[in-house]
Structure prediction request, 191 residues.
Amino acid sequence: MCHWESFAQKKYFCLVLLFVGLVPANLLGQNSLIFLNPSHGKLIKAKEGDVLSIRYKGYLGQTEYFKNTLTEIKDSSFVLGVPIFRRNGGNMGNEIDQQFQCKEIRYLDVIAFRKASIGRNVFKSTLTLGAAVGTVFLFDKLYQKNQVSTFAKIGISIGVGLSLNYLINLAIPEKPNHKMTDGWQINPLKE
Prediction:
């Protein structure tokens, strides 16, 4: 029995060693993009899984904006977003839907960028949720004291909701703020 256990241990050890040997090195290493501005001495590191807002030159030279998760870093481009695949291997949705799911952007086409940190996203979501809940409680007390028609309640709620959403987006913008014309450079890094 003892001989069998040592054989099984050796077998599992060999399988693990074989698996580690077959896994490509680029899957084990973490890829990242380095946004560098030497004139201001600033460095922003974006790794796979971070959310980026990018303004870039499109196919016909028009300026486009895209915000999604950084999923792949290549030598001359990067991919934002994850394509959703069907079980039979095809992409979900039509070509227009696929265009909004994921985009590959060349480094040379980037005009401006912003890396959205987790803290920023959590803060903005918490602020939005807090404003919505606070508005509900405020209007509940307000509507109980005053006789307001249902149509007026809906109108007031929509107006205040849109105003709060506008103010939150004004206070915490998502548009790209680092412009490539200010001296920023993009360099891929394999660690």
